[in-house]
């Protein structure tokens, strides 16, 4: 790639985009923000969850529809490849420059959506993983590092502010993407073929699936409630599987094209400063006190220090706790409060919740990073872990309390707790580069930061894995508990099969907690709001471990330092 300047792609190489004297450096931040807003839409992934889990049934999940746990993993794969691409792109970025990296990011991110669209329309889950997860994830990583590195070079005098703008754009991407995705889904959605009201259509259950006899023969159907059908402007009743559209495939295609165009235009706005350029009248100021190092540690040597791995654990566990919740935020809000407060927690309310996650994620990046300049990085992370542990432990309380007493105060408490958690999630990303610079010096902080982002990749697996597997355990336990309380005759009448076939009916998504609650004895408490309690306890435990990793943080020992003179204007990578 380093020879690209001599080939067909030479016009993208950094040697061809050196800014002329007098170039206004403030032209670069808008392009950087545009790219980060595009790739930051990954945080609004949960908007797609309902559509992708009923792609065949459309109004309700059918037996062949993808499960929530399998869909959430797409988000995980994208985050894994984001971290890996960011970790390995630093050196290549230095060779070819930000424009070429930005163009490749646009091709991968936009193209990933397009391939994902083909996977959804053909109902091939592996194609969605390949497109959005692998290729899109690599586009995320490349798009993430290119503007940050460029802005550091243009704003050595305001490094925190400049990179904060771009990283804030990444955190705020979902603020734009969430409503746009929701609008596109509704625009392209099409209700499936309606056969009639449930009591007017003869159905039979075979192998856990529901079938109906029509003039054209037997067809598989789903039975939608009034709330499920309302999303499509339809009525409760029996619908034919495979005849409608959620709009997900068309939404993916539209977004892929739009993101590609915006990111290409932004990448072509990149310029790099001339060698030895620095802002007029600026001279580097020596850094001071506390745990801020005056020495530099080489990128390879940094990996041999306990401080690097302590920070790796801190970032990994802080992100694991937050990212698992972000991936299923809309679903979690609907499940905890939707069944007990249906008039308040509507689909629109849940979508707004996703939007507010993005707002607090974005604002937290500025707030906590700025606060760390005054109280120190170590104290800032202490806030993350102490306050975060308390907030994660409060969520099961709100969920359990609202199940027995659907009061608004519990919804407000849950909302406030999760918003503070998401602000600290974003704040962790914004504060860690400064923490690294404090510990290892500024010369190699870019490369060290790239290596540290493998913690983000790991968290991208751990978070969703924990939240989905623990939730599924809770669902299974709740269904078995409810099934033991219902009348076997009522069960057989409702589901067309005996209670002994419970596992088969659950596997085919015919039996759900909501449907069992319809025939449960009066006074039975709906277990749905408590499905995430175990998960929250585990997330709190992770933050306790991270707390001790930060508590034990000490300055890097002298034998890790090296004598190479510090490059005052810009970090190494």
TrEMBL record:
InterPro entries: MFS, MFS_trans_sf, Proton-linked_MCT
Listed GO MF terms: transmembrane transporter activity
Annotated CDD domains: MFS_OFA_like
Keywords: Membrane, Transmembrane, Transmembrane helix
Chain ranges passing through the membrane: 31-48, 68-89, 101-120, 126-145, 166-185, 248-268, 311-330, 336-360, 381-403, 409-436, 448-467, 534-553
Top-level taxonomic group: Bacteria
S-adenosyl-L-methionine as UniProt keyword: no
Gene3D superfamilies: MFS general substrate transporter like domains
PANTHER family attached to this UniProt entry: MAJOR FACILITATOR SUPERFAMILY (MFS) PROFILE DOMAIN-CONTAINING PROTEIN-RELATED, MONOCARBOXYLATE TRANSPORTER
Designated name of the protein: MFS family permease
Source organism: Sagittula marina
């Amino acid at each position: 790639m380093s020879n690209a300047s001599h080939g067909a792609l030479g016009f993208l190489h950094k040697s061809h985009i050196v800014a002329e004297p007098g170039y206004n450096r403030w032209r670069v931040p808008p392009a950087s923000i545009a790219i980060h807003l595009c790739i930051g839409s990954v945080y609004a992934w949960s908007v797609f969850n309902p559509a992708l889990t009923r792609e065949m049934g459309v109004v309700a999940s059918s037996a062949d529809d993808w499960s929530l746990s399998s869909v959430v993993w797409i988000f995980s794969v994208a985050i894994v490849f984001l971290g890996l691409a960011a970790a390995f792109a630093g050196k290549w970025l230095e060779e070819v420059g930000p424009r070429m990296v930005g163009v490749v990011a646009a091709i991968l991110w936009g193209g990933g959506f397009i391939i994902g669209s083909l996977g959804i329309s053909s109902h091939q889950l592996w194609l969605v993983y390949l497109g959005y997860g692998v290729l899109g994830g690599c586009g995320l990583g490349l798009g993430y590092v290119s503007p940050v590195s460029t802005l550091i070079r243009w704003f050595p005098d305001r490094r925190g502010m400049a990179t904060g703008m771009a990283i804030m754009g990444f955190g705020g991407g979902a603020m734009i993407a969430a409503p746009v995705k929701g609008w596109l889904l509704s625009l392209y959605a099409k209700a499936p073929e309606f056969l009639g009201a449930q009591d007017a259509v003869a159905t039979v259950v075979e192998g856990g699936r529901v079938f109906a006899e029509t003039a054209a023969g037997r067809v598989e159907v789903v039975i939608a409630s009034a709330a499920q059908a309302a999303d499509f402007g339809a009525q409760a009743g029996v619908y034919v599987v495979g005849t409608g559209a959620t709009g997900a495939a068309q939404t993916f295609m539209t977004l892929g094209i739009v993101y590609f165009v915006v990111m290409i235009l932004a990448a072509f706005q990149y310029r790099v400063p001339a060698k030895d350029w620095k802002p007029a009248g600026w001279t580097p100021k020596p850094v001071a006190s506390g745990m801020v190092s005056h020495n530099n540690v080489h990128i390879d040597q940094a990996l041999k220090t306990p401080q690097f791995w302590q920070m790796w654990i801190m970032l990994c566990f802080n992100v694991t706790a937050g990212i698992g919740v972000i991936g299923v935020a809309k679903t979690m809000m609907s499940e905890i409060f939707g069944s007990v407060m249906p008039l308040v927690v509507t689909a629109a309310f849940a979508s707004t919740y996703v939007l507010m996650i993005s707002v607090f994620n974005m604002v937290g990046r500025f707030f906590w990073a700025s606060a760390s300049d005054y109280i120190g990085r170590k104290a800032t992370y202490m806030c993350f872990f102490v306050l975060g542990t308390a907030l994660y432990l409060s969520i099961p309380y709100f969920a359990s309390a609202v199940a027995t007493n659907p009061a608004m105060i519990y919804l407000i408490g849950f909302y406030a707790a999760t918003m503070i958690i998401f602000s600290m999630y974003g704040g962790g990303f914004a504060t860690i580069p400064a923490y690294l610079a404090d510990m290892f010096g500024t010369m190699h902080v870019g490369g060290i930061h790239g290596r540290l982002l493998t913690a983000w990749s790991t968290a991208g697996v751990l978070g969703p894995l924990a939240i989905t597997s623990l939730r599924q355990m809770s669902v299974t336990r709740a269904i078995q508990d409810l099934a033991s309380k219902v009348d076997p005759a009522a069960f057989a009448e409702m589901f067309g099969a005996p209670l002994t076939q419970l596992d088969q009916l659950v596997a085919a998504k015919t039996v759900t907690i909501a449907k069992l609650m319809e025939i449960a004895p009066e006074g039975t408490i709906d277990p749905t709001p408590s499905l995430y309690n175990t998960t929250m306890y585990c997330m709190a435990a992770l933050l306790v471990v991270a707390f001790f990793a930060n508590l034990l943080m000490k300055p890097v020992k002298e034998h890790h330092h090296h004598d190479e003179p510090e490059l005052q204007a810009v970090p190494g990578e």
